Amino acid sequence: xxxxxxxxxxxxxxxxxxxxxxxxxxxxxxxxxxxxxxxxxxxxxxxxxxxxxxxxxxxxxxxxxxxxxxxxxxxxxxxxxxxxxxxxxxxxxxxxxxxxxxxxxxxxxxxxxxxxxxxxxxxxxxxxxxxxxxxxxxxxxxxxxxxxxxxxxxxxxxxxxxxxxxxxxxxxxxxxxxxxxxxxxxxxxxxxxxxxxxxxxxxxxxxxxxxxxxxxxxxxxxxxxxxxxxxxxxxxxxxxxxxxxxxxxxxxxxxxxxxxxxxxxxxxxxxxxxxxxxxxxxxxxxxxxxxxxxx
Length: 295
Known about the structure:
- 37% of the residues lie in helices and 20% in strands.
- The strands form three sheets. It has a seven-stranded mixed sheet, sandwiched between helices.
- It is built from eleven helices and eleven strands.
- A hairpin with a 5-residue loop joins strand 10 (265-271) and strand 11 (277-283).
- Helix 1 packs antiparallel against helix 2, helix 2 (24-36) packs antiparallel against helix 3 (53-67) and helix 5 packs parallel to helix 6.
- The protein has 295 residues and is an alpha/beta fold.
């Protein structure tokens, strides 16, 4: 029997609700729009458009994947962050609203500078650096990750969002010293792997089974990357440059201590939009040095 797009949506909504999906309306809308190639912002007209049986079957298969625990973002291949839509696949973590406050702080700092240079470490999908470049038109971003897949996704997102001319990707291991030739930066931002060894054993199945573990695990106490970045990468900051981190909900005091021991001043803990102390940032207090790293 021929079905409308709205019929498909209602069928998926009922299945998802019965299956325990925490947001069945959102999930059903996203899957329906993706499977039916429909505008998810114009749902009022969905009852006037009919779809082929093959499309109905395809939507049902996508729903099966969702009910089996696969994250919606990986099913539809994209996710919204900071008002922009980013491509994602299983080589990168899904951008989360928890990180939008960090992104906002980066943008605030960038707007205070002329032609700011931003270094995005452990860039993943590139969402932080790309959102900053998209908002601050004279910003230049270098995005670094060890994953070839992540760097590919970052380049695709930069192209799709119109900032590829101001964004450079580079493969490097943040746990080691930075490559030569990077130059200096006004802002370094990182949302690094910070899940502890114990927490890795308790991850939700949708995370443990689908998201890349190398982008999650931060060592036994979850702090390995904060030590490495402060040890080696902080030297790339200009005098009074800013270093900003996202961290786990119980790690802000530890990250503050690491930054203070490395000489950062005005180290501040800030909550995300949910009131969780998730962001730590400070100012480079070192004198200017000639790194012979001109970019």
